[in-house]
Amino acid sequence: MHISRPHSLQLLTLHLLALSAAQYDPVKDFCRRFGHQSAVVDNKLYVDGGSVNWKPFTESSQNYTNTFFLYSDLSGEMHGMPPQYATLSKNATVPSVSGGVLWADAVNKRLYLFGGDHRQAPPPARATLYGYDILHDQWDASAPADTITPTSYGAGVSVAGRGEAYYYGGWASNASAAGWGPGPPRASSRLVRYAMDANAWSSLAGPDAVARADGAMVYIPAGGAGMLVYLGGSADLHGNGTAAPQPLDEVFLYDIAGARWYAQATSGHTPTARRRFCGGATWAQDQSSYNIYIYGGAGFPPNTTGYDDIHILTIPSFQWIRGADSAGGNTSKPFPKSMMTCNVVNGGQMLVVGGAFADTNATAGMCDDAEDAGGQHNVALGESDVWAAYQPALTTYAVPPDIRAAVGGQATGGATVTAPATGFDAPGLSVLMTRTAAVATRSPTRSVSAPSTELAPPAASGLSVGGIAGIAAGGAVLVVGVLAAGCCCVIRHRQKHYRGPRQTGPEYRRPRRCRLWRITRTRDRRRSRPCHCRLARPSSCRPTACTSSTSRCSSNTNAATGGPATPTTPTTSLRRPSAAETLMPTLTPSLLPPSPLRLATHCAPDTLASAAEDPSPVDPRSPWVKQQQQTPSTPPRTPIRSPRRSSGAASGSRGPLPGSPYFATAPLLPPVEFPPYQPA
């Protein structure tokens, strides 16, 4: 076996990466998470990338890139929040980015990772879309059109019913796009559209020429084919990376069917301008009102602390309503956060995952892992007490009392206020608000009937331990592989060093290489062949010894000559090798043979001398023959040691250690033949 140097280095690199990743349990050691991407498909919340802090959290704690791909089982509940697992695959070719988007395709059971900042390595030379197959737990990659420039911290949303995904704005920099150069980041004013089934890309115009980033965008089923609503964030007014606040007293709506943008002023308790917050949308059962919930966010100077509050924008009246848990005015509660994600689950709940604390006096040194929730927080969208435990059985949305007080109607709908207090800013928007989207049922483009067995949670609690155990096992296998490669290289080097000039001719017989494994004798399927050795059926093999008359292995030395059978104690245990022994034997000095070794490992010590007298031709120039000419007596029975020898004599004469496998220092003894297997 020959391992090339580049391959060995690659194995070593993978091993080091596995050991580095295995230092932390992504569930048990979790402290904080921010800048990640998340999406929901089939009652599973997927979380990818971003930055993470591990326990214990101190003032000197570092921000680590999160290389784990996690999911939460939304059909279960543990400690008030969905249980989280880290058992999904993610190979090294898929980057772990911050500020990207994870588009969900619930019809074809896929996820798409787009955009984001690359922290571990430079971005790829060309923009890349990474797809995750949920059914088969594997990733792939494709290249968008050349006109697409990936950005970070833009606003993304997917519409699975239409098979489309959108991404508006974001910051372009040398961390998000290759070849950007040393200049400052600049925001984008473009709307990127990706058609999932056709794998087609489009770069569309934004609502105006202003470039924006750090905002949020949601989908509502209004108009002919649905609408996108963008709100908040930063405005790059001068194209030089300077972030100005985008006020929340104005929102932008994109009509998908008409491919047109609309701007609309808002009223009510307008939140203070903020960036890198998160939001989600839900609606009444009769779609008489669409309600957008936003949470948290970072502030702009002079208020750089941020926010820990909930606000609701109800459409079509375009009124801002302060959430029941929010403080009065524009002040914030004591735990401001930003760079988190929001995902609405079945219309009735919104899971807020992670977020970076502003590290005020109330949050300094605090981990976002209350009750081992993994940074997950649940908003009960239809209740007055919005922060509540997650309820897997809650699958409907009831309009809460504070919204009904503003728009009228009941919990199921029937809103009576269906227009802004000052009217619509565009006549066409008023018409669209009276329509509900008619989206045809989309059929999958592949077979999706196979269950996703890879995502089945383990039976016991603490499921992340299984994921870490798998990583540790993989690291152990890599260690064994690297050691095996090194052992093989050493053996090959010694074989080349001690092998004499190549012999040819009919009288020359190439020496057989000795296997370093514990061997057992099994029956060959073809009766005409002698019994061969392999790692199988150890119970079917008997202790063997070698005789000089036949050079064959028999049940004992006397049985080969017809005498009474005398039990022979084997020098090697006939037990089945363990997994570690199967991969590679223990690398002790007694197991490093010179090459080639011609003696079977099961030969008893008492027969070594007779076996050494076999008249089979050997290389007259070998060191062993010269040793026999100088010392005609039987060579001492010594364990094999390092190949360093003094001229004309073997190094060391000490006998084998008790209990250790016995090897002789006769490098060119004839091969041992085995008779056909005879069942007992």
UniProtKB/TrEMBL annotation:
Mind listing the UniProt keywords for this protein, alphabetically?
Iron, Membrane, Repeat, Signal, Transmembrane, Transmembrane helix
Presence of the UniProt keyword Transmembrane helix in the record: yes
Ranges of Pro residues composition bias in the record? 668-680
Return the Gene3D superfamilies for the record: Kelch-type beta propeller (2.120.10.80)
> Does the record carry Transmembrane helix as a key word?
yes
Name it: Kelch repeat-containing protein
User: What are the boundaries of the region Disordered?
Assistant: 537-577, 609-680
**UniProt-listed InterPro entries:** Kelch-typ_b-propeller
Q: Biological process GO terms, please?
A: glucosinolate metabolic process
